[in-house]
Amino acid sequence: GAVVSQHPSWVICKSGTSVKIECRSLDFQATTMFWYRQFPKQSLMLMATSNEGSKATYEQGVEKDKFLINHASLTLSTLTVTSAHPEDSSFYICSARDDGFGYTFGSGTRLTVV
Amino acid sequence: AQSVAQPEDQVNVAEGNPLTVKCTYSVSGNPYLFWYVQYPNRGLQFLLKYITGDNLVKGSYGFEAEFNKSQTSFHLKKPSALVSDSALYFCAVRDIPTGANNLFFGTGTRLTVIP
Question: Which of A2, A96, B42, B68 is most buried, by the most CB atoms less than 10 A from its CB?
Answer without folding.
Answer: A96
